[in-house]
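Could you join me in thinking about how sequence relates to backbone shape in a protein? We need material for that, and I hope you will provide a protein of your own picking. Label the sequence line and the structure token line clearly, so we can match residues to local backbone shapes. Would you write everything just below, so we can both look at the same thing?
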Amino acid sequence: MTTVRVVVGGAVCEGGRLLAARRSAPPALAGRWELPGGKVEDGETPERALERELREELGVETEIGDRIPGEWVLRPGYVLQVWTARLVSGAPQPLQDHDELRWLRPGEEAQVDWLDQDRPAVAEAMRRLAATAAGVPGVRR
């Protein structure tokens, strides 16, 4: 039986915008954009792993929200799962694995070259942001 490792991504939203992070490593991914996050360590829940990763990578404290439906294969043995996240304290800085951060509003997501596996979750996060901005009832960030 093959063990699948979960990699968590955070759709960090604030003020109707989504945070995008540009990879600085590894070389194969450098220059492309992603939702920040990382691997779930043994004994961690995905939500706690995401809080830890966002603290390490961006220097912020967050509150993890809803899981975005779906799971995307990153490479054999690794899948990406994405949750929404809200900033509690701190201003995001590119501390680890990233060299630039950018806040994007719905409709601006095509301004950056997203990693392919992040695209479906980004699309859903932007759909939710647009619906929230439009005041659609029942849509949460």
User: Anything to note?
Assistant: The first helix runs from residue 46 to 58.
